[in-house]
TrEMBL record:
Gene3D superfamilies: 2.60.120.200. This is Alginate lyase 2 domain-containing protein. Signal peptide: none annotated. Pfam families: Alginate_lyase2 (PF08787).
């Protein structure tokens, strides 16, 4: 229960106790109106608590977030430097599906880096260094793809660590890097992926189909950005790696909206408190 709600409930309870000890205030009978007010407050509190619970259990993961405006110019494609983009990446305007392909023998995305081959989108124009940020998208990995990262939170250029999170696919399982299984049996189905990064708390959380599947504290860096697609890793690599994505969206917290919400709740509690006090002494 939020602190402001807890304090109001304590004050209301004190008023009820005080009014009960002064029968002259209400003709020697219990204040039924006070009990009604307390019942109303309890119902409001229950509603607010259930809203919070729905966000926690994944039914409303984006509640309290504001959607970031993304245009096609924000979707920067990285693919093997010697290949035309349309041979490794496609976007279907009719379905909104982005398809990423990379072969184990492909070259890197430029002729300077020594990193492994990839075909990925780097979400440009929305690097972040504070707040809570959320990636949401519907992904699909066909049978046979293995040894590839399909989503990552990347640190700024030149950081001590390249990433704070990578989700790899190995033989049908989605894993945190090459370690803990996040979701088994990922092949041949559309899944909803939500990744929440709390910069201030230095934590990441991964939700699959609305259910929390993984959470971890991470090493902080100066700034971050999201990537998704296929990026070859270092073991259990298939000759061809593929992923498909649609409805990719980015959200962040909005301090102005949160402050407005807090002011709204405070006004409601003060009004209820005033009514309760008036009824208790009438």
């Amino acid at each position: 229960m939020p602190n402001c709600q807890h304090k109001v409930m304590k004050v209301l309870s004190s008023i009820m106790a005080s009014s009960s000890s002064h029968p002259a205030l209400h003709g020697g009978e219990p204040s039924s109106r006070m009990e009604l007010v307390l019942l109303l407050v309890s119902m409001v509190l229950a509603l607010s608590c259930s809203t919070s619970a729905s966000a926690i259990d994944g039914r409303n993961l984006t509640a309290g977030f504001v959607q970031v405006n993304l245009t096609e110019s924000n979707f920067k494609v990285q693919r093997p430097y010697d290949m035309p983009e349309n041979q490794r990446y496609s976007y279907d305007n009719a379905t909104g599906v982005r398809t990423f392909l990379v072969y184990a023998g492909d070259k890197p995305f430029n002729n300077v880096t020594t990193t492994n081959p990839r075909t990925e989108v780097r979400l440009a124009g929305h690097d972040y260094s504070s707040g809570v940020w959320q990636f949401e998208g519907y992904g699909y990995v066909p049978t046979g793809t293995s040894g590839a990262s399909v989503m990552q939170i990347h640190n700024e250029q030149g950081a001590a660590h390249a990433t704070v999170l990578m989700l790899h696919v190995y033989n049908g399982a989605l894993r945190y890097y090459s370690g803990e299984v996040v979701e088994d049996r990922i092949y041949d189905r559309w899944f909803r992926l939500n990744v929440v990064h709390d910069v201030g708390a230095s934590t990441v959380a991964v939700y699959v189909d609305g259910r929390r599947k993984f959470g971890k504290s991470v090493v902080p860096s100066a700034s971050y950005y999201f990537k998704f697609g296929v990026y070859m890793q270092h073991h259990d690599v298939s000759p061809l790696m593929e992923s498909r994505w649609r409805n990719v969206t980015v959200y962040t917290t909005n301090s102005t909206a949160s402050a407005t919400c807090r002011r709204s709740w405070t006004s409601r509690w003060l009004l209820l408190l005033a009514i309760a006090f008036y009824w208790s002494v009438e």
